[in-house]
Amino acid sequence: MSNLLSAEQSEYWSELAQTYVWKKKWDNLISGDFHKADVKWFNGAELNITENCLDRHLENRRNKKALIFEPNNPNEPSSFLTYGELHLSVCRFANLLKSKGIKKGDVVCFYMGMTPELMIGILACARIGAIHTVVFGGFSPLSLRGRLEDSKAKLIVTHDGAYRGDKLIQLKAMVDEAIEGLDSVETVLVVKRTNNEINMKGGRDYNYETVIKSAELYCPPTPVEAEHPLFILYTSGSTGKPKGLLHTTAGYMVHVGKSFKDVFQYKENDIFWCTADIGWITGHSYMTYGPLLNGATTVMFEGVPTFPTPARFWEVVEKHKVTHLYTAPTAIRSLEKFGHEIPDKFKMSSLKVLGSVGEPINEEAWHWYHKHVGKEKCPIVDTWWQTETGGILISPMAGLTKLKPAHATLPLPGIEPCLMDENGKEIKDLVASGNLCLKTPWPSLARTIYGDHERFIQTYFSTYPGYYFTGDGAKRDSDGYYRITGRVDDVINVSGHRIGTAEVEDAINEHPSVIESAVVGLPHPIKGQGLYAFVIPVDGVEDSEALEKEIRETVNKIIGPIAKPDLIQVVEGLPKTRSGKIMRRILRKIVENEIESIGDTSTLLNPEIVEKLIAGKKELN
Ligand code: 6R9
């Protein structure tokens, strides 16, 4: 037993783990500590997570719907897979992967739209001990290439094209571009969706529909060690290139399955709809693994909230009798904009619980969601967690925890958050505000940054030795409730997606007319935060619409559309310290219109620049 956990915590996690199916039980619950960032759980155990998601339900839930698929276009019929059918599909996909040479420990990349094959595919990897890495379809070919180089994926699964609202995204063509000259990718499986014309390279590219035909119907689950990698998921940090967070099998399973049940108070026959894309952690944990571990029915939606009309979400809720809707504040705000008359037309009487995730939810959006969607009878669970934490850590339990708008409230069982002051000490007072850390390990914490354990230690365990540092700031009130205030590092949360300022700056600086740039978060009515870029051009280049357009296009090409700056201000200089460091704090104050709290600028290398930046500030339309 680790001296990090209390006896009660150890008992809690081991009793919980007993509720799952194991090939071999663990010898010891936990080893390692936060100092070396080498915590391991359920040492010596063997299992297969898909046996827990699928096989064990076959006896009682074979004919129950596991997955309901709602296509982008409402005129196309929806479809579903029962547990029996999902099990069969996963087995066949797993056999197909094997026939293409994929073995335990190999990495398989998914760059797809949201169709059942994506969920089937990642489960097929888990079935044979291969590691999945899903790259969101909104990332550019260059971003995809970076992730492929880092993960050394041998096989990619993609679509010919993907539908998102009124757009057709040419995924296969983007894959072709991404893997040009990249030898590590041996095979590309192409699932047909849009029937747009694509190029197929002989010996490398295969039509999924053709090759799946010869796949055997049953694939036994490969037993893997508790700490065998389950997936890699890339996310942005405050510096450098995206980090591939590595999650392992047993610990992830144990916490994700239980947190799903606890937070949402899931009951048999509920219909759970998480609107996230599987390209993000929420789609992994609460569209796929969490619901399936509990034998639930999970809804997968291919489209976007506003296509073909802003009533789409409410239509889906009524059509599939959704009981749980789990979405992001940015989606709520984007629908709020069209007026409450739209959701007011829908009874949505099936709804029992609403969820929020991805960014702080502002009180106005909270009340709108509560009144017009939940009709004042559904609790809202404001769930705080991260790609790194694997599952929800701080959240109300629906119907059990007294709610406070915009508060993530209390930690889940077994979880021990704390707040740190500016001297790096834990704040013992109940009412406090500080940087949010976790004091003790929990099973679903990521184990490392793929290929860079040193960076893992540096990023999460060095700021406060002995603690996991989240990168978020938070407040704690007299009820012990946590309210997450947002990132305290250089990560910007755009529509609930994490974007590193350094990454965007590097992309902007690739433009030949740019010398230097600085990107900060911009308060944004829909996205929560947008991106505001200050750009220093080379001599003789003036601010122009054409330049701004080119800069956005450069970012689009290097990272993808989600990282395009909302506003670009061309400037002659940036406020710098005498050691040459950009004073981002000042830039943030300018962008947030908090000029009076900029403070003393006299120690800057170039104090005169501040006034000029304020004078030239751009505004959202
Ligand atoms: C699950 C997910 C993590 C960051 C996190 C924080 C913000 C997530 C939140 C929230 C306030 C909530 N965040 N949930 N902030 N209230 N309920 O979103 O993972 O994409 O890794 O983002 O999102 O800033 O640190 P990920």
Summarize the structure.
With 621 residues, this protein is an alpha/beta fold. The chain has two domains: 10-19 and 47-426, ANL, N-terminal domain (Rossmann fold, 3-Layer(aba) Sandwich); 495-616, GMP Synthetase, Chain A, domain 3 (2-Layer Sandwich), CATH 3.30.300.30. Helix content is 29%, strand content 23%.
Written overview of the protein:
This protein is α/β, with parallel strands linked by helices and 621 residues long. The protein folds into two domains: 10-19 and 47-426, ANL, N-terminal domain (Rossmann fold); 495-616, GMP Synthetase, Chain A, domain 3. It contains 19 helices and 30 strands. A seven-stranded mixed sheet has the order 5-4-17-16-18-19-20, sandwiched between helices. Strands 7-6-8-11-12 form a five-stranded parallel sheet, sandwiched between helices. The N and C termini lie far apart (58 Å). The site of ligand 6R9 has 25 residues, from helix 10, strand 24 and strand 25. Residues 235, 280-282, 356-360, 382-387, 408, 470-472, 484, 486-487, 493, 496, 498 line the site of ligand 6R9.
Strand content: 15-25%
CATH topology name of the largest domain, in short, is: Rossmann fold
Nearest-integer average pLDDT: 95
Q: Specify the structural class.
A: alpha/beta
CA-atom Rg in angstroms: 24 Å
Largest sheet: 7 strands, mixed
DSSP summary: helix tally: 19
Low-confidence stretches: none
What is the level-2 CATH architecture name of the largest domain? 3-Layer(aba) Sandwich
Q: Identify every distinct bound molecule in the structure, by name, code or SMILES.
A: ligand 6R9
Overall spatial form:
globular
Q: Which strand order does the major sheet show?
A: 5-4-17-16-18-19-20
DSSP, total strands: 30
End-to-end distance, in Å?
A: 58 Å
* Helical content class: 25-40%
Organism: Bacteriovorax stolpii (Bdellovibrio stolpii)
InterPro entries: Ac_CoA_lig, ACAS_N, AMP-bd_C, AMP-bd_C_sf, AMP-binding_CS, AMP-dep_synth/lig_dom, ANL_N_sf
Enzyme class: ligase
Protein name: Acetate--CoA ligase
